[in-house]
Amino acid sequence: MRKVVQIVQVAFTYIGTVVGAGFASGQEILQFFTKYGWMATATIAFATLLFTWLGIKLMLLANELNAKSYEDLIKELFGARLGGWIGLFMLVILFGVSTVMLAGAGSLFSEHLHLSYQTGLIITMILAYFIIAKGMQAIVAVNSLVVPVMLVFTAAIVWATWELPGAQNWLVLESDYPLHRIWFSPLLYAAFNMASAQAVLVPLGSAIRDRSAIFWGGLLGGLGIGIMLLACHFALSAQMPGIMQFEIPMGHIIYPLGTTVVFMYIAVIYGEIFTTLVADVYGLSLQLEQRTKWNQKAIIAIILAAAYSVSQIGFSKLLSTLYPLFGVVSLIWFVSIVWRRENRLPRNT
After folding, report:
1. 147 falls within a domain
2. Residue 335 CB neighbours (<10 A)
3. Residue 150: Cβ-neighbour burial (10 angstroms; 0-12, 13-18, 19+)
4. Cα-based angle 45, 48, 49 (whole degrees, multiple of 5)
5. What is the pLDDT along the chain (349 residues), one digit of tens a residue?
6. Spatial distance between the Cα atoms of 184 and 169, rounded to a whole number of angstroms
7. Which CATH number belongs to the domain containing residue 305 in this structure?
8. Which residues, 6 or more positions from 54, have their beta carbon under 8 angstroms from its beta carbon?
9. b/e per residue, 28-40, with b = 16+ CB within 10 A?
10. Residue 74 in domain
11. Which of 35, 63, 161, 237 is 20 to 30 A away from residue 130, measured at CA?
């Protein structure tokens, strides 16, 4: 029973780390998959394969190397000198992603709860500090609460879409995009998300000694991400092509379903923002602790305070500036992970 619980915790932490605000809004899924028509179903299957394979491989590599932070893994992949520079660059980028998540929380409070932007930032910072300061166990516990709500929400979306006139669009919708662009999209999507997720997956893989629990947890987590992708793609496809005009596509689908579902939608978005924020700040704090030897709780407070300052720029501006830059670095990291061979295989799998 203890092993089953551990497997589920690994899976939920993996899902919660990868699934962020862009996923919940539907914009990521629309841009990387749905706009490509019926072939998106195949590319989602490909992305699911990548998430499953690379999630398992990343955590097992971290376990094999006993990596304390993602920088340890990067140095193993690229060598001490180049790995140090890449690790420093990824530190900056992951800090940027953290500020985007914090800004997203502020925007959510402002636009949907009718509270001030600053209130959303401060509440989220305080909650994040107390969770991150308690370490990996607290992060796993938060994901174990949030991810089941995400899965219930996903099932509700599918149920609400099932009887719509466009429910078959996910299998028949045509697209004029070239094949190379269609098939490059899931590769870029997986690379971007996995490079970001390493901030928590590396210490998670190192902390769990049972490699078979890592294997099955990674398998379950990768499949869970794929199922959520497919469910949201199914719902968005039913509204094509009109859904393309909305900045938050899922909002257009959700709001006609009533107050209860809308409240659930807001809770899910906040949960996805929060789990990504705590994962990134936790990973950054581990790396900075290794570099500076400062107290980790002090580092967490400094990171959150700095993120608060930068988040004043705003959610959309940060998102459009930082994410394309991170995508390029992610592809380099992605290729290195793919070609890195493990010296050991998971036992008792």
Report:
1. yes
2. 12
3. buried
4. 90
5. 688 989 999 999 999 888 876 676 787 888 889 989 899 999 999 999 999 999 999 999 999 888 878 888 888 877 888 777 877 777 877 787 788 788 888 878 887 778 888 998 999 999 999 999 988 888 888 888 888 888 888 888 888 888 788 888 888 888 888 998 899 889 888 888 888 788 889 989 988 888 999 999 999 999 999 999 999 899 899 888 888 877 667 777 777 777 777 787 788 888 888 888 898 898 888 888 877 888 889 999 999 999 898 887 755 555 555 566 676 677 777 787 777 655 444 444 4
6. 22
7. 1.10.4160.10
8. 190, 194, 334, 337, 338
9. bbbebbbbbbebb
10. yes
11. 63
Residue 211 forms part of a structural domain: yes
How many residues appear in the chain? Answer: 349
CA distance 137 to 207: 10
Structure tokens at 237: 């496809």
Q: How many CA atoms lie within 13 A of 58 on its CB side?
A: 36
Alpha-carbon distance of 339 to 228, in angstroms, equals 28
Domain count, the chain: 1
In a domain, 138, yes or no: yes
* Residue span of the structural domain in which 162 resides: 2-339
Evaluate whether 77 touches 337 at the Cβ level (below 8 Å): yes
The tokens describing 96, both together, are 């940027």
For 229: left if phi > 0, alpha if psi spans -120 to 50, otherwise beta; the answer is alpha
